[in-house]
């Protein structure tokens, strides 16, 4: 599967390449990013392992993008996101492994990135369902997913063992093909507001 670059008004999602390493290392070492993640990246070696793992997965199963803020003359790498567990038979996938520099939370970057990913998933790949899951303690993520218009589906209890040994319950949401037009309209209305980047 050819991985596209997805371009919006203030966000660009580029397929991950090794050449993104230097840009990623300027933002990836903030511990706040990894608090609820199944991996922790604290140094260059761990970042390289993260990149190698992402690139080793065939694009038919997973697509990893790096996220750029592109307002005006700005062209700054600020995070990453993925389309994972791609199943073209049943037309399902999940958006996950999303992280953005904490200073840019609430600026509209994540909302526009999700609009780009969902548009690609539903309109280009013709998906039937896109899922999201998050740590049970990550209330900010749960609120953001609900704000997209995704419906709560349930919680997988004791789903993962975190790097610190604690147990994570995974809270699941989804958007279906039938819901996509309304979700798209809501997202586009949100993004018409001129939200400045930090």
Walk me through the structure:
- The chain has 198 residues and is of the alpha+beta class.
- It has a single domain, classed as Aminopeptidase, CATH 3.40.630.30.
- 28% of the residues lie in helices and 32% in strands.
- It contains five helices and eight strands, in the order ββααβββαβαββα.
- An eight-stranded mixed sheet has the order 1-2-3-4-5-6-8-7, covered by helices on one side.
Query: Strand sequence of the main sheet, in spatial order?
Result: 1-2-3-4-5-6-8-7
The ordered string of helix (H) and strand (E) elements is EEHHEEEHEHEEH
Counted beta strands: 8
CATH class: Alpha Beta
Descriptive tags:
Aminopeptidase; 32% strand; globular; 198 residues; eight-stranded mixed sheet
Per-chain topology:
Blueprint: E1 6-7, E2 11-15, H1 21-25, H2 44-56, E3 63-69, E4 76-87, E5 92-100, H3 109-124, E6 129-135, H4 139-148, E7 151-161, E8 167-176, H5 180-191
Parallel strand pairs: 5-6
Antiparallel strand pairs: 1-2, 2-3, 3-4, 4-5, 6-8, 7-8
Helix pairs in contact: 3-5
Can you give me a brief rundown of this structure?
By secondary structure, the chain is an alpha+beta fold. The protein has helices at residues 21-25, 44-56, 109-124, 139-148, 180-191; strands spanning 6-7, 11-15, 63-69, 76-87, 92-100, 129-135, 151-161, 167-176. The chain has one domain: Aminopeptidase (3-Layer(aba) Sandwich), CATH 3.40.630.
């Amino acid at each position: 599967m050819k991985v596209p670059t997805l371009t919006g008004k203030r966000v660009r999602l580029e397929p991950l390449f090794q050449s993104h390493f230097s840009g990623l290392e300027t933002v990836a070492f903030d511990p706040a990013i990894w608090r609820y993640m199944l991996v922790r990246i604290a140094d260059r070696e761990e970042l390289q392992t993260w990149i190698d793992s992402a690139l080793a997965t065939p694009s038919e199963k997973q697509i990893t993008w790096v996220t750029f803020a592109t307002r005006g003359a700005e062209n700054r790498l600020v995070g990453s996101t993925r389309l994972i567990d791609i199943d073209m038979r049943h037309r399902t996938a999940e958006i996950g492994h999303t992280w953005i520099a904490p200073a840019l939370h609430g600026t509209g970057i994540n909302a526009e990135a999700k609009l780009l990913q969902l548009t690609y998933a539903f309109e280009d790949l013709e998906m039937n369902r896109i899922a999201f899951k998050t740590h049970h303690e990550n209330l900010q993520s749960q609120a953001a997913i609900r704000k997209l218009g995704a419906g709560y589906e349930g919680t997988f209890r004791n789903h993962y063992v975190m790097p610190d040994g604690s147990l994570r319950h995974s809270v699941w949401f989804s958007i279906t093909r039938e819901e996509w037009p309304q979700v798209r309209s809501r997202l586009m209305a949100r993004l018409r507001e001129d939200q400045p980047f930090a």
